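User: Please predict the structure of the protein below. I'd like the answer in structure-token form so I can feed it into my own downstream comparison script.

Assistant: Understood. Taking the following sequence of 247 residues as input:
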Amino acid sequence: MGVAAAGTTGVAVEVNAETDFVARNEQFQGFVSAVAAVALAKGADVAAINAAECPGTGKSVAEQLTALIATIGENMNLRRAIRLDVGSGVVASYVHSSIAPGLGKIGCLVALESTGDQARLTELGKQLAMHVAAANPQFLDPSLVDTAALEREKAVLTEQAQASGKPAAVIEKMVEGRIRKYYEEVCLTEQVFVIDQENKVSKVLEIVGKEIGAPIKLTGFARFALGEGIEKEEKDFAAEVAAQLGR
């Protein structure tokens, strides 16, 4: 994972290699940092990044990647990228399990829109990016929770509540309470801030907004964990042998 942030813009990119050994190679690390710099300048479209010039090489990113594969002898690919922007404010970043500046296993971005003190805003942004790494929110706020996911959750909670045998009105209240708890688990604004373990993130934004004399709007976040979503095929050895024998 590579992240880069500059003022009102921040990016995260994922470049995959086959082994952790390559991830510690200085040439590979330099390439990932260069890709992040390209994304910061050009945007997060992977095709556009691959076609752009790789800084200091005279080659495109795709060409430099091909050359790097030939040099190191291991397959690699630029898997994905994301970019956050705000009109006024900051985009802050955090890298967890860092192996070099801006490089690590988890890369996080937080976009804060405000006209208040930029230094304090940046400090808060970095803390929130750390929170995102630790708490792994799935949605920015309750209004953005996937409808299908919410309905599935409601169905499960209703079934569990009905098993208690309590009256319908009580069951409804139980489900409402559990949905609030669900929001607190998956929505960034509703999560308890990991730094102070006391206030919700939404309340922290309100408190700091008063400190800096301007409201703060949390407009977006991103959390990239290396390799997430890549399914590794695992076969049962006995089943594989049986299949080869035609059983």
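That's the full token string. Residues 232-237 have pLDDT under 50 and may be disordered.
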